[in-house]
Specification:
By secondary structure, the chain is an alpha/beta fold. It has helices at 9-19, 37-49, 67-72, 77-84, 97-100, 119-122, 126-141, 153-165, 195-200, 203-216, 221-235, and strands at 5-6, 26-31, 52-57, 91-93, 145-149, 171-175, 239-247, 261-269, 272-280. Helix 7 (126-141) packs across helix 8 (153-165). The model has no long low-confidence stretch (mean pLDDT 96). The structure holds adenosine-5'-triphosphate (ATP), pantoate and beta-alanine (BAL). Beta-alanine (BAL) binds at residues 63, 152, 155. GO terms for molecular function: ligase activity.
Length: 283
């Protein structure tokens, strides 16, 4: 059975109030729809760790710095609801735009530090848009647990920081990246790749793994990252926006492997911007 789709905050509150006495833990899985197995892995984790699960679907205009990207973002709400049916989630909150940004809305949540550099440097205003909408969704749903993917690793760090800084009473749960068999991280934007570009796309993950493996094995950081960039371009990507080694917890730039770290990258292929990241596992 498909879950009810709630469009208004009053309906969400009424739904939430109906659970209050009987329910211990409510989880939220925030998404922008066009659901794939990556999103569904978050829903599965939420179902295992909560009594009630709300999935939100909202294509948030404030986090798109590029109007073409916003216009092209896939919107597939009916099939999204069908994909969620087997999970028996308790509610789908797909708010009308004015439920998030009512007339006169004038507030922005801005997280410094972790949102700077990486995607923050290439998508001006993006993380302010993400932090603002996530704060709003957490407050509207009043969930005790919220699930986010490590595929958007910098986003996960931004959300962890804002929740800590603002004392939002929610536990943030990070979930591993789900990949295709050839290693490409699942993303709603993958459908925009031509068949030829789709064949090339896994080179991003391969280069990340190669760089992380070399650094973990003691190779100097800068040449290992440079080799990664060259491999991505040689495979057919048109641009590497960044490929960097960062501290896993703070995202501070690292010139040497002196603490737990990740290698993160964004690159353009066939006009599509893809991101990915991997941990550097000490050998
Ligand atoms: N491959 C994946 N594995 C695990 N989680 C994922 C994956 N892809 C997306 N997610 C998570 O799902 C949530 C919603 O993401 P979103 O709706 O932006 O999907 P998306 O596929 O990441 O879209 P896009 O890549 O186009 O931005 C985020 O927490 C995101 O990290
Ligand atoms: C967290 C999120 C739903 C906020 O719009 C979005 O950035 C996403 O889908 O990753
Ligand atoms: N997955 C993060 C949402 C975005 O790219 O805007």
């Amino acid at each position: 059975m498909t879950a009810p789709i709630l469009r208004h905050l009053t309906d969400l509150r009424a739904c939430r109030a109906g659970w209050r006495d009987e329910v211990a833990t409510v989880a939220v899985v925030p998404t922008m729809g066009a659901l794939h197995q990556g999103h569904l892995s978050l829903v599965r984790a939420a179902k295992a760790q909560a009594d009630r699960v709300i999935v939100t679907i909202f294509v948030n205009p404030r986090q798109f710095e590029n109007t073409d990207d916003l216009a092209k973002y896939p919107r597939t709400e009916e099939t999204d609801a069908e994909k969620l049916a087997p999970f028996a989630v308790d509610a789908i909150y797909a708010p009308a735009p004015d439920q998030i940004y009512p007339e006169g809305f004038a507030t922005s949540v801005s997280v410094s530090g972790v949102s700077e550099g990486l995607c923050g440097a290439h998508r001006p205003g993006h993380f302010d848009g993400v932090a603002t909408v996530v704060t709003k969704l957490l407050l509207q749903t009043q969930a005790e647990r919220a699930f986010f993917g490590e595929k958007d690793y910098q986003q996960l760090m931004v959300v962890r920081r804002l929740v800590r800084d603002l004392d939002v009473p929610v536990e943030i749960v990070g979930c591993p990246t789900v990949r295709e068999d050839d290693g490409l991280a699942l993303s709603s934007r993958n459908v925009r790749l031509s068949p030829a570009a789709r064949a090339v796309a896994p080179a991003l993950y391969r280069a990340l793994k190669q760089a992380a493996g070399a650094i973990a094995g003691g190779a100097p950081v800068s040449p290992a990252l440079q080799a990664g960039r060259e491999a991505i371009l040689a495979a057919g990507y048109s641009e590497v926006e960044y490929l960097e080694l960062r501290a896993a917890g703070t995202l501070a730039p690292l010139a040497a492997l002196d603490r737990p770290a990740r290698v993160l990258a964004a690159a353009r292929l066939d006009g599509v911007r893809l991101i990915d990241n991997v941990p550097v596992l000490a050998v």
